[in-house]
Amino acid sequence: MTPQSVRKFWQLARQQWQSPDRLADLQRANLRALIAYVYDRVPYYRRLFARQGLRQADIKGAEDLSKLPVLTRQELQRNQPGDLLADGIDLSQCLVKVTSGSTGRPLNIWRTKPEDLTRRLVWARANFANGLRPWHRQALIIERNLPAKDRLWLDSMRDILGLAKLYLWCGDDVRKQVAALRSYRPHVLLGYSQSLRLLAYSLRQSAAREIAPRIVFSSAELLDERTRALVREVLGVEMVDMYVSVEAGCIAWECPRHHGCHLNTDNLVVEFLRDGKPARPGEPGHVVVTPLFARAMPLLRYDLGDVATPLEGQCPCGRGLPLMQVIQGRADDFVTLRSGAFIYPVGTFADIIEKEPGIVEFLVIQESLDLVVIKLVTRGENNREIADKVRSGVEELLRHEATVKVELVDQIERGYQSKLRRIISKVPVPF
């Protein structure tokens, strides 16, 4: 960890304890700097400001962002990377991150190395606040198997983020995960809520006592009360919810008081919009974010597709960061096989389906133990060929224990309260 990154980390650590008014002033200053940057350097926003009849000076604070339209995922896809990239950015010196594609096809998000470091340090602040330290044995249940070079890179960042030394793939048989964790005995466990739920259920069934982490972090997926209760019962710890996205980094996080999630407003602007207007405290709204330190590919008022609730007042912990209630909606379901095995929803179906070009959205519905229906929204030609490849790949994933039917549709309906759910099962699971 360089002296510069150490100084930056402790600056962020101190900032969280400042008063709400001081944090609001800091946010305004950071927003003005971002607006000056995009007005001067980003073609997309130069045109947008001209079209809206706005000047740089018209955006002085978060309350002025409503003068700009919300940036949708579809608009981002149409302009990617193109005019959303800042002039003079050398992409060979940038990092590219890929979104999960949970609301459509994946997106590439470009970051400069300094802004990427800032995002990691913001995440590290939340980790540190919940007791994670670099010397802890940590296990991370990841979405996909990482290549060796990425694992080495993660290890080099361990002192910044507290990242895992033990990497497990969430799509692996849970018995394999349990065996590895029994041997490793991590102090800290990080993963998606659904992977942690399945792990806790398996541990309860096997009455394992060797796995006793001090901290369990859940991120990138809806954490419901059923999962919290199961992990609390089996592992004896309260889960820590982290609200993160590829586009904005660590947006909000729980502290040990579990009084809501602290919004990182010193590093981003978060709006909660209902029918295009700010939601009142206690009222659910669509989450719209403006990362304040994005420089390679700035995003102003980006709609994440999530719904969350802003909260009134401060946390008893004393931090000045405002609060929100965890994201609402329903998580993807497990798919149950006739043999009794479970197919984890994240990083399994998506790996197979999203690799086919031309797929815009998908929905997997398990109608019964014997039938799985996949709805595909496609763009372009060779739709039948795409459908055949998807059916073949999913049949293999399901170990040929169920019939797979693929339907080509024009659109997939979604409700107000959540992102598009990708996996829905009508077969109940025992946990």
| Number of helices in the DSSP assignment | 12
Alpha-carbon Rg, integer: 22 Å
Strand ordering within the main sheet: 4-3-5-6-7-8-9-14-13-12-10-11
**Biggest β-sheet strands, sense, barrel:** 12 strands, mixed
What is the CATH superfamily of the domain at 3-121 and 243-325? ANL, N-terminal domain
Query: Strand share of the residues?
Result: 15-25%
What is the name of the CATH topology of the domain at 3-121 and 243-325?
Rossmann fold
* CATH second-level architecture of the domain at 3-121 and 243-325: 3-Layer(aba) Sandwich
Can you tell me the residue ranges where pLDDT is under 50 for at least 5 consecutive residues?
145-154
Per the principal axes of the C-alpha atoms, what is the gross shape?
globular
**Fraction of helical residues:** 25-40%
Descriptive key words:
single chain, 431 residues, alpha/beta, Rossmann fold, GMP Synthetase, Chain A, domain 3, twelve-stranded mixed beta sheet, 24% strand, globular
